[in-house]
Amino acid sequence: MEPKGDAAKKILERLKKGPTTPKQLQDDLCLSHSTVFHNLRKDSILFKLGLIEQLEDGKYAAKGSSSEEARIRESYSSLRRKLLRNPSSEELAGQIQKTPATTKVLLFKYIPEYREPAEDEIASRPYGRCLQVVALNRQVRKAGLRKE
Known about the structure:
148 residues; 61% helix
């Protein structure tokens, strides 16, 4: 059993790394369901002190951490798991609805270990190429260069 307050500290530290679901917190921190939900309630110390917030998608995040940073990190991690490699800035741009150039700057800002995948790395994963085309099509439509 965790000493009182240790679970709240662990949860806060994990949420500072990016938004997550209660189930992910349980798994990542090896905490019980009741411990996690106790610390995520609106009347918990973390909420009362204004340290955490619940996002529109049901995930929880630490306040004060950039929501942009959290969104970039979450999108990057999610896409990386799907592709089994680093996503390109073009692939990620479609998910976060930014231009590929802006996405590249944000990736290097928030994920210092990021590197662009090589073309042969992208080509070796057809799913990855498909996402890249979808992302580019979104950018073209957004720019008004092609009508649907």
